[in-house]
Design goal:
By secondary structure, this protein is mainly α. The protein is built from 9 helices and no strands. The C terminus is likely disordered.
Length: 234
C-alpha cells in the first residue's frame, strides 16, 4: 500500500496537471530558505562585529567564517521540515484536488478547509516542528543519536501533519487524527519516507508537493480498507 502510494505520488509530482503548483511550491520553498539564510547570516555577522573578531583576530575570523557556513547549512537542514509544512499549507487543497480528480475520478471530491483555518493549523504545527528540530539540533554532534533524533522526530511530525491535512478534506480534524492512530504503521512509514527526503539536498525541495500527493493516496487507500473492515479496524 505504501509503495503504491509513493509511486503514484512521485508520478503526480511531475505530472502536467501539477506542474504549475510544483514551480510555485519550489519558488516559495526557496524563497523562505533564502530569507532564513539571510537572517542567520546577519546574526553571525552581528556576533562577530560585537566581539571585534575581525579586527583583533583575523585568523579566527576566517575560521569562524567557514564554521559559520557549515553551521548555517546544518541549521537550514533542521529548519527544512517546518518550512515544508508551511509550504504545504499554502498548496494543500489545490494539489489534493488535482490528485483526487485525476487518480480517483469516481470518488466524491474532498472539501477544502477554509484557507485561514488551514494556514493556522500549518503555522501552529510548523512552530511545534521548529521547536522539536531546534531541540534535536542541540544534540547534533552526539554520534548516531543526533541524526536518529532528527529522523525519528520528523518522521512522526511529518506523518501527522501531512496525513491529517489530507484526511481533513473528508472528515473533521479530530477524526483524521483518530484515523492516523488507527493505522500507525502505514502513516508512520510514509513519515519515514518524507523524513528521509529531508536529508537529501535538492530532493527535499520536492517534499511539500510529494508529501501532499503521497498522503492523499494513502488516505484514499486506508479509507477503502476502513470501509471493508467495518467497526473492527486494525
Amino acid at each position: 500500500m505504501l509503495v503504491e502510494s509513493a509511486a503514484a505520488a512521485l508520478r503526480q509530482t511531475f505530472s502536467p496537471p501539477l506542474r504549475a503548483i510544483l514551480w510555485k511550491s519550489l519558488g516559495l520553498t526557496l524563497g523562505l530558505l533564502v530569507l532564513v539564510w539571510l537572517g542567520l547570516t546577519r546574526l553571525v555577522q552581528a556576533f562577530q562585529a560585537s566581539h571585534h573578531i575581525s579586527s583583533q583576530y583575523p585568523i579566527l575570523d576566517s575560521l569562524a567564517y567557514y564554521l559559520a557556513g557549515f553551521g548555517l547549512f546544518v541549521a537550514l537542514a533542521y529548519l527544512m521540515p517546518a518550512i515544508s509544512i508551511l509550504v504545504a499549507g499554502f498548496f494543500l487543497d489545490d494539489a489534493a484536488a488535482i490528485v483526487e480528480r485525476t487518480d480517483f475520478p469516481g470518488d466524491p471530491p474532498g472539501q477544502a478547509m477554509p484557507f485561514g483555518t488551514a494556514m493556522l493549523y500549518a503555522i501552529r504545527f510548523a512552530g511545534v516542528t521548529l521547536l522539536v528540530n531546534l531541540a534535536a539540533l542541540v544534540i547534533f554532534f552526539v554520534p548516531v543519536i543526533g541524526i536518529a533524533a532528527f529522523f525519528a522526530a520528523n518522521a512522526y511530525l511529518l506523518a501527522r501533519e501531512y496525513f491529517e491535512m489530507a484526511a481533513a478534506r473528508f472528515r473533521p480534524l479530530p477524526e483524521a487524527a483518530v484515523m492516523r492512530r488507527t493505522f500507525p504503521v502505514r502513516t508512520l512509514g510514509a513519515g519515514c519516507l518524507l523524513s528521509a527526503m529531508m536529508v537529501v539536498p535538492i530532493l527535499n525541495l520536492l517534499t511539500p508537493l510529494f508529501g501532499i500527493a503521497l498522503m492523499v493516496h494513502l488516505h484514499k487507500r486506508l479509507s477503502r480498507r476502513e470501509r471493508l473492515a467495518g467497526p473492527t479496524r486494525t
